Amino acid sequence: MASSSSHKKDINWRGVDLNLLIAFSALMETQSVTKAANKLAIGQSAMSHNLSRLRQLLNDPLFERQGHHMIPTQKALELSVTVENILNLVTNELLQPSSFEPECFNGTFKIGLTDYAELLFAPAIFDAIHGLAPNSHLSFFNVDRHNYQAVFNEQQLDVVIGSMTNMGKEISSQYLYTEDHVCLFDSKATGLQAPITLAQYSQHPHALVSPDGQLITQVDNQLKHHALERQVAVGSRNFLTIRHLLKGRDLLCVVSRLMAQLDLFHDDLTQCPAPVDIADFDIRLLWLHRNATHPRNEWLRQLVAKTVIGQAKKLKQK
């Protein structure tokens, strides 16, 4: 390793210029300083200067004039294949935008989702990706609006799906759809029928989906304006826990409309508009701005966005 490092230090890297290799290639092709200069659209004096720098860099005449032709030396002939390989490598691998072929990809896609987004979209996303990239692997990461930026960087996520706001400059996003809410309950256990009144809403115990563990929300502030209050009997950050509790119990719960439409349950709960104003929320697709032009990331974003929008539309039509 020390020897390799020593050799690198011995090379005059400041004298190495890609344009010199392009000039060498043109001279090999045309065997004329004038024609090589015309080919590269530079002056003849500039081409002569490039040849002089090449000779100094490679310590060889490289081309000798014979009449109107510049005849390559033996070293020039030996170097010609290497130079062409270098130029082809730079052109095809470094400067040309790479493409992504999903059918050949066997790496891992990392997608961050909130509990809400994972429950609604994970199966559809898996099917869409596996159908086009059958050799790939898919890893879902649980995120929320408080930790998603840290998880983005720590886990090197490709994209995140959720109702995120106040994103920094390092994060780009795409709007997917807007979600609203419904009130969900067991008619037999609660004795209620849709639609319900504000008084009924406040009189029955509530189950609350609470990502941050808080049992007081904007709803409670609205009820105060009507001289009403509600009893939150149970709260959980997990929608599935709350959903299981509703069957057979005197509980009301306000949930996103798409959550209420899921096929996971067949317990015939009743849903209706909530008698209080609850703000809608936007679902967005997020990615790191620095990865925006990467072909794999672009392909994944397009597929995930199409899948999520399609799944949301399908659930809304139920």
Automatic annotation (TrEMBL):
Alphabetized UniProt keyword annotations:
DNA-binding, Transcription, Transcription regulation
Gene3D superfamilies the record matches: Periplasmic binding protein-like II, Winged helix-like DNA-binding domain superfamily/Winged helix DNA-binding domain
Q: Which Pfam families match?
A: HTH_1, LysR_substrate
Q: Which residues form the HTH lysR-type domain?
A: 16-73
User: Which PANTHER family does the entry mention?
Assistant: HTH-TYPE TRANSCRIPTIONAL REGULATOR LEUO-RELATED, TRANSCRIPTIONAL REGULATORY PROTEIN
The UniProt family comment states: Belongs to the LysR transcriptional regulatory family.
The name this protein goes by in its record:
LysR family transcriptional regulator
